[in-house]
Amino acid sequence: MKDRNGSVTEPALPFATTETGHGAVLLPGTGSDEVFVRSVFQVPLAAVGLQIVTPSPRPGADLGESFLTALEQAATDGPILAGGISFGAHLAAEWALRNPDRCAGLLLALPAWSGEPGESPAAVSARLGADLVRAGGVAAALGELTGSVDPWLADELGRAWRGYGAGLADSLRVAADRPAPTLAELGKLDMPVGVAGCVDDPIHPLRVATEWAGAVGRGALCTTSLEIIGVDPEALGRATVLAWLRAGGRSRE
Q: Which residues pair with 220 in a beta bridge?
């Protein structure tokens, strides 16, 4: 695993209670679900003393707003650590910009674009998925798409997409069409921001993660790879949490 200075590391996370004290809320990516988010983040966050909350998707046109509402509800009793994967990372950053006093830090894995989605690979992929689902149903779309991805990812898509049911196509379009924060907007964040990217992910280019980490005043970047995540999903969580620690997220003595 490489940090932003290019050194290769495998993070050893301290077992301590963090200063936030209110837990972490992590959101899934496009067409993904709480099962995968938990597999990525639960153990790495437990290692720094944080309990994890992983809201389930509410499929359909209100998917994005429902996740923002989940963050609002979680922050009722005090600041939270917010984050997510891909689309979930976009939403967490969007929420933090609206609620800087209620967000103690950000855990952002695999951001897919900045500003308008345009023809970014993740947006194009989500639109294609939505079109295939509308044309032939979930099973047919999975049959066409999963043959070109690694088996672990095919398994994840199969479980998550079936869970979205009739709301899958609209959910994919919501993610594909929603703007992410711009780099200028990210520059307004004043909190520890850990960003993780993959060196071998064409859908979530490492360039985007690098730009996000560089845009915020207190940001750091760590990297891993899809090859590693396929056998060890927690590698993505470790990279993100390590980046947050290096950005200034601290553990109590």
A: 194
